Amino acid sequence: MPRTWVTGLAVVLAWVEPMRADESPLDLAAKALDKQDYEAAVKHAAAAIKADPKNPKGPYLLGVAQLRLRKDAAAVDAFSEAIALDGKFAAAYDRRGDANLRLGKFKESAADFDKVIELEPKVTPEHWRRGIALYYAGRYEDGVKQFETHKTVNPQDVENAVWHYLCNNRVVGRDKARKELIEVTRDGRVPMAEVQKLFAGKLKPADVLAAADKTDAKTDAGTEARFYANLYVALYYEAEGDAAKVKEHLSTAVERHKIGHYMWDVGAAHLKAAAARK
C-alpha cells in the first residue's frame, strides 16, 4: 500500500509562519516535528496548549508527536482534544484513526476515517487505510467499496486487490471473490506477483515464501520481502479459516521482520487482537 494521505508534515508546517526570532511554542513544536525531535515537539506543543488553550493546533501537534513516539493512547487523547475544539478538523480525525487502529480499536478507527471522508470527500479514493480499518471492524461491504474506489487511483497494487478479496470473501464467499479478484500485473515489489497468484488460487503459500527468500535476508529489501510474504500468507490462511497458520505467519512477520511502514502496524494490531480473543 504505497499511497497514503496526510502522512507528511506539509499540513502542519503550512500553519506556522516563517521562522522568527520570537518563535511561538506552536512554531517550535512544528519545527521539532520537522526535525524528528519528537520529545521536544511534545514539550513545545504542551507549552502551546498552555499559551492558547482554545487553539486546536496545539493538541494536534502534541498528538502527532505522541503518535511518532508510539504513545498511541496519549495520541488519541490529544487528537480528541483538538477535535473537541474544532469538530471539522479532518487531519485530527485521520491521525486519531491511525492511533486507534494501532490500539486495536478498529470500530473507532473506522469511524474516525469515515469522518475524514465526510469532511474531505475528495480524499476518499486515496484512503486505503480506511478500507483496512473497515475490514477489521467487520464492515466488509463498505470495505469492498473502499478498495474498489482505491483502484481508480492505484490500479496496479496487489495489496489493494488482496484487501478487496479479504472483504469480498466475507460478503460473497471464496469462489465468487476469487473470480472478482482485481487483476494486477505490474506490481514489481517482491513477492507481490506471487501474492496475487496465491489469492487467485494459482500458487501455494510456500511459493510466496520461496519468492521472498530469494532476496538477501541481510538487506532492507530482504526484510521487507519476508515481512510482506508472511503477512499476506497469514491473511490468506485467515480467509481459509486456519487460525494456527495465521498466528504462525503473522508472528513471523511482526516479530522477526519489522519494517518502518504502516503495514507493520496493521500486522501488529492484528496479532494483538488475535491474542486478546483467546
List the helices and strands and how they pair.
Elements: H1 10-15, H2 25-34, H3 38-51, H4 57-68, H5 72-85, H6 90-102, H7 106-119, H8 128-136, H9 140-151, H10 158-172, H11 174-179, H12 192-199, H13 205-213, H14 220-240, H15 243-256, H16 262-276
Helix pairs in contact: 2-3, 2-4, 3-4, 4-5, 4-6, 5-6, 6-7, 7-8, 8-9, 8-10, 9-10, 10-12, 10-14, 12-13, 12-14, 13-14, 14-15, 15-16
The level 1 CATH classification of the largest domain is: Mainly Alpha
- Work out the strand percent: under 5%
**Which stretches of 5+ consecutive residues score pLDDT under 50?**
3-19
Helix % is: 55-70%
Please count the beta strands (DSSP E, at least 2 residues each): 0
Nearest-integer average pLDDT: 94
Report the principal-axis shape: globular
CATH level-two architecture of the largest domain: Alpha Horseshoe
Q: Give the helices and strands as they follow along the chain.
A: HHHHHHHHHHHHHHHH
Question: What count of domains describes the coordinates?
Answer: 3
Report the C-alpha radius of gyration, rounded.
20 Å
CATH superfamily of the largest domain: Tetratricopeptide repeat domain
Distance between the terminal alpha carbons, to the nearest Å?
A: 30 Å
**Main β-sheet, in a few words?**
none
CATH topology of the largest domain: Serine Threonine Protein Phosphatase 5, Tetratricopeptide repeat
Number of helices: 16
Secondary structure class reads mainly alpha
